[in-house]
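To: structure desk
From: M.T.
Subject: fold request, one chain
Message: Could you run this one when you get a chance? Sequence is below, nothing fancy, just the single chain.
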Amino acid sequence: MPDLDLVQEELRELATPVVEAAGNPAEAFGVYVFTADQPESELARYVERTVFDETFGNPRELLDAEYLPYEESTVFYTVIDHRRRLPAGMMRIILPSARGLKTLQVIEDAWGVDIAAVLERTGLDWDENLAWDVTTLAVAGEYRGKSTDGLISLGLYQTLVRSALAGGARWHITILDMKPLELIQTFTHGAFFGFHGLEPRTYLDSPLSIPMYVDYEEWVPRILEADPATHDLLIRGIGIEPAMRPPSWAPLLRALGKEPAPPSIVTR
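Reply: Done. Structure tokens follow.
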């Protein structure tokens, strides 16, 4: 498959300087943060395009139409396979900005409701400047299942939680396909809550999806009490570091207009 080989070589050309700049880490994988205007964001975009096309039949043109309006406030979390110098997984985050958050707009457009009324009914002390929007997560096919035992997704979830707390977020919002929702809820001890009055429906060729939110002020102390090991894994970053190099927060904090801070900013 020469076309695939060519694509992989192009991806390696992007990933290799990233890995070398990190000091050629000993860990098998690492998480890296790229803003949407960085050429390296193509590593994440490639995984996103490939997986969403395979899983939901979403072509590149559809993804561009959905997400390009939010490019200026977008960051990508990208897992890189250090040995192969290829992207293994990604997460797309939309940060607070004057453009707003995509999920809130989708609730109005696809669910056909007024978002202000939904937030009021849900009883949230809402401040959009403290909310992050998690719009996509994808793991490349060869890194799913037994090949990594969920390590890629776990690294992305850990990065999301720790970076949201480090960046001062109170909530994150997202639209979740119903198929993985039960598994995610079990693992996180029910971190996600639905918006009042919204039911699952078809969204971007997912048969059933639903908007959800996590309230970190509510969830962090609850998971510490319920499951200290998972708390340490997701919030303190303890547990997968021998295999997954954690990211530098500097690119993210710059995107937020904050001074870079050390990873130890998040503690018990």
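Reply (cont.): DSSP finds ten helices and nine strands in the chain. Let me know if you need anything else for the meeting.
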